[in-house]
Amino acid sequence: MTTTYAALLRGINVGGHRKVPMAELRSVLEDLGLRNVRTHLQSGNAVFTTDDDAPAEEELTTAVEDAIEKRFGFRVDCLVRDAEYLAAVVDACPFPAAELEGKQLHVMYFSEPVGPERFAALDQAAFLPEEFRLGDRVLYLYAPEGLGRSKLGEALNRPALFKGIVVTSRNWNTVVKLAEMTRDQPGPN
Questions:
Q1: What's the CA gap between 72 and 18, in Å, rounded?
Q2: What angle do CA 163, 45, 149 make, to 5 degrees?
Q3: Model pLDDT for residues 57-84, shown as the tens digit of each residue
Q4: Sign (positive or negative) of CA dihedral 162, 55, 40, 96
């Protein structure tokens, strides 16, 4: 039996900085012994399988981060999540995702659980109709005008708000696609 995961890399291939070509990322992951490696978009999304005695998400995260640093010469924060978790994130969405455009709904993935106390200083009512809700190591952000125009998104992007944890965001289309890719992952080579 195999376990399927997605690796979510943070902050690569943005504005020509921290370039990680997807073909090379696939090669890096395959060199780690991961199988059925596929990538999605240029923003650092990879899906792969491991054996049933696979290491924990944290061990895989560290292995991927170390391998990328060795290959490219810079460290990239990464989160590794299994197929079951990614499907649960989609299923638990508190907003009417089917009625929204992908650009209106975003998910911020966290390296650890985050409680409402982190957001106590944010007056959520001041950002309406934009809003967010917390889930299992995620924050769902509804931004009706898209993230580029989102005042709440800007407020949530302050480094001090998430000090000490890794955060990476994906729009809803990518969230759904990664859940599909991990669910539909081909069998062993």
A1: 8
A2: 60
A3: 999 999 999 999 999 999 999 999 999 9
A4: negative
For residue 49, which of 63, 33, 64 has the smallest C-alpha distance? 33
Tokens standing for 7?
């690796």
Please give the DSSP secondary-structure letter assigned to residue 153. Answer: H
Residue 44 three-state SS: coil
Give the per-residue pLDDT at 5: 95
State how far the Cα of 50 lies from the Cα of 35, in Å rounded to an integer.
6
* pLDDT tens column, 130-154: 999 999 999 999 999 999 899 999 9
Question: Which distant-in-sequence residues (6+ apart) come within 8 Å of 120 by Cβ?
Answer: none
Residue with tokens 């009512």: 125
